[in-house]
Amino acid sequence: MTDDAIPAQNTDDAHALPLAVGDRRRGRPEPSLNDPVFHISDLDVWYGDHQAVRDVTMLIGRRQITAMIGPSGCGKSTVIRCFNRMNDLIPGARVTGKVAYHGENLYDADVDPIEVRQRIGMVFQKPNPFPKSIYDNIAYGPRVNGMKGNMDDLVEEALTGAALWDEVKDKLKHSALALSGGQQQRLCIARAIAVRPEVILMDEPCSALDPIATARIEDLMAELAADFTIVIVTHNMQQAARISDYTAFFTADVDDKGVRHGRLVEYDTTVKIFENPADQRTEDYITGRFG
Amino acid sequence: MTAGTGIRVSEPPSHPAPRKLAGPRFRPGESAFRLLLLCCLAVGIIFLGVLITYVLVEAWPRLDSRLWENFPSIRRPERAGAQSAIFGTIWVIAFTALFCLPTGIMAAIYLEEYADQNRWYNRMIELNIQNLAAVPSIIYGILGLGLLARELSLGTTVLTASLTLSLLVLPVVIIASREAIRAVPQSIRQASLALGATQWQTIWRQVLPAAVPGIATGSILALSRAIGEAAPLLLLGAVTYVAFNPEGLESAYTVLPIQIFGWISQSREEFHHLAAAGIVILLAILLLMNAAAIWLRNRFSKRW
């Protein structure tokens, strides 16, 4: 894991990655699920005949950072893609159970997936800016959604919100592909917040970035959590421990045919998961004995 | 351990030094393979060079303004020209492009972006398009004659010729456009859809602009094939010695390949020079079209 390379004594350095639980949560309110945005119950996901995820039930709290961790193939990316119906795009994917967003099941027949994705944005593993200018990258979402108002102000607001404005304000008409990887990922976050979603889903947003860029994104997430509900899938346990309010630990059951089915093992506050997990499998995973 | 620096310095090695690295070695296999590749390349280049030189030498006596100012004549080769064939070719190719490019590109969009590849009928359509690309062009001529010219009473006109050539190159346009659309990274589509864009907005604003260079290249190859076709048009009334330019879709016409064919089959020497000059004109039009495609491709791909 990349952040292990940074010696512990450098923690006062702004760009080092401290390892303690909740370090990037300082100053944020106590974790709470009293005001849930999502109520997921009995969620099963199938790809063709293969059941990728079985029986997931959890609440996602408003303006909380919820992390999903677990070994490869445990279905955490599959689950997060149910939250804005991105799984619809995979041929053969089928979802049963409920993903209730403010009480309304996203998978009901009368729900428009386009509107779902306007309210629930997503940031992907690999930064994927459009091959256009920085300005047009941000303006694209508001334009396709038919948002009114001054586009220049909106672009500035989104870039400021993603802590990118000062770096790019003089080159808004330049290609977004000329930015560094970390800047591109913050551009993707800016692009997502430009359509003013309520929720931002992040599918391993730092796995293609170096530790300094990762630290910037983590800082940014802590700031964004004041206004947005954030769900993040991460391979990096320390990252989940540092930034999240709640942590869900997923693992994969292997049946007698060798097929993997993802399931949610334990879901609780991050402090509880990392300091006093209830399930033996969680403890084995976070102490590095497994996975 | 050296004091102060904290760097461990190892003792000099006691084992014998490894064998010295040898200098560059001659490997006959490598050179032979490279030579073979060069020979294959040379075959193509030399034949092309010989062809162009031969045609230019043949055409030289007649490569002047008479060629595009005059109409064909059987009796007086010194006053014959190919104006009607040049205009005919431009008319036919322009309408072929107009018919086959939008149709082909939209068919490709459907197959790449909407069709479910798991359905048997979509796989069958795909297979058939690939087969159609290999059907000899004379078959399309027969189809055009039987269906378009006679059954639909379109006659042997510019319209029939353009439609027939469109059908002929449509599979090529579809296949090339599909390749170009497929080469657009999936992550671009996901980014757009995740922002709440509809599928059509994603295709129109992200996928197509990114695919334009590939589509342009494929389309120009397809049109280059159409411009050189003589066989299907022989059946479709592209007669030689048409002494007027096409005036509309309903007009009779001739095209350069047919005109060249007509001149070559004459016995008098002067007509052979004319045929060569016609070939030079045809090549020039082809080069112009290619240049246009390259310009279009650069315009779209250099922006980012």
Strand ordering within the main sheet of chain A: 6-7-8-3-9-10
Question: What is the CATH-assigned architecture of chain A?
Answer: 3-Layer(aba) Sandwich
**Strand tally of chain A, please?**
10
According to DSSP, the number of beta strands of chain B is 0
Question: Mean of the pLDDT scores of chain A?
Answer: 86
Can you tell me the number of structural domains of chain A?
1
Head-to-tail CA distance between termini of chain B:
55 Å
The parts of chain A where pLDDT drops under 50 for at least 5 residues are: 1-18
What is the class of chain A in the CATH system? Answer: Alpha Beta
* Superfamily (CATH H level) name of chain B: MetI-like
Name the beta content range of chain B.
under 5%
The rough form of chain B would be described as flat
Main beta sheet strand tally, sense and closure of chain A: 6 strands, mixed
The multimeric state of the shown protein is: heterodimer
Overview of the molecule:
- Chain B: The chain crosses the membrane at residues 35-57, 85-111, 132-149, 155-176, 226-244, 274-296.
- Chain B: Part of the binding-protein-dependent transport system for phosphate; probably responsible for the translocation of the substrate across the membrane.
- Chain B: Belongs to the binding-protein-dependent transport system permease family. CysTW subfamily.
- The complex is a heterodimer of chains A (291) and B (304).
- With 291 residues, chain A is α/β, with parallel strands linked by helices.
- Chain A is globular and about 55 Å long.
- Chain A has one domain (33-286): P-loop containing nucleotide triphosphate hydrolases (Rossmann fold), CATH 3.40.50.
- In chain A, the strands form two sheets. A six-stranded mixed β-sheet of chain A has the order 6-7-8-3-9-10. Chain A has a four-stranded antiparallel β-sheet with strand order 2-1-4-5.
- Chain A has helices spanning 76-80, 113-119, 134-144, 151-161, 165-168, 181-194, 211-224, 237-243, 270-275, 280-286; strands at residues 36-47, 50-61, 65-69, 93-101, 104-105, 120-123, 199-203, 229-233, 246-254, 260-269.
- Chain B is mainly alpha-helical and 304 residues long.
- Chain B has one domain (66-301): MetI-like (MetI-like fold).
- Helices cover 68% and strands 0% of the residues of chain B.
- In chain B, helix 3 packs parallel to helix 6.
- The chains are: A alpha/beta (291), B mainly alpha (304).
- The A-B interface holds A 84, 86, 89, 91-92, 114-115, 117-119, 121-122, 124, 126, 128-132, 140-141, 144-145, 175-177, 188, 191-192, 195 and B 116-118, 185, 187-198, 201, 205-206, 210, 303-304.
